Amino acid sequence: MLKTPNIFIVIILIAVLFMAVGYSLFASDIELTGNAEITGNWNVLITDIEATDYSPNANPGTPTATATTANFAATLNAPSDYVTYRITIKNLGTIDAVLHTFNLTSDEYGTDAIKILNTESAQELKAGESTKVEITVLYDPFTTSNPIITTKNITGTIQYAQE
Prior knowledge:
The protein has 163 residues and is mainly β. It is 15% helix and 37% strand. The chain has a domain at 44-156. Strands 1-4-8-6 form a four-stranded antiparallel β-sheet, with no helix packed on it. Strands 7-5-9 form a three-stranded antiparallel β-sheet, with no helix packed on it. A two-stranded antiparallel sheet has the order 2-3. It is rod-shaped, with a radius of gyration of 36 Å. The relative contact order is 0.18.
């Protein structure tokens, strides 16, 4: 009777040995290699500025634009004179953009007789789309005397960011 348990132990050991050898014969390493590439293109810029409307006595000058700046110099001669400029911003890239900040300011020493009115650009600017911003400079119609300071410097930031 003692031999029967020993035979089972030997059989179990042989089975485990065959299983280990069988596992090693059928196991293999698999190697993975890969590559990732960014193909998105960020390209939001100013493509145009034009004077679209102005009063008969006002002179819109010649507005100019580069990829990141728009410049204008309006001459306003009398109260109620105004010039409206339209700035075109286009997303020429492949990544959608969202408006992050829109801020127009003027120097604190400039005349209060010149007012700035504006429309904000689109909140979302999909790839390939464009938006327009209108900025109007207005000689305050309620001004009753000639201002001592006759100029106002206007600066602004329109910042788009990735969604």
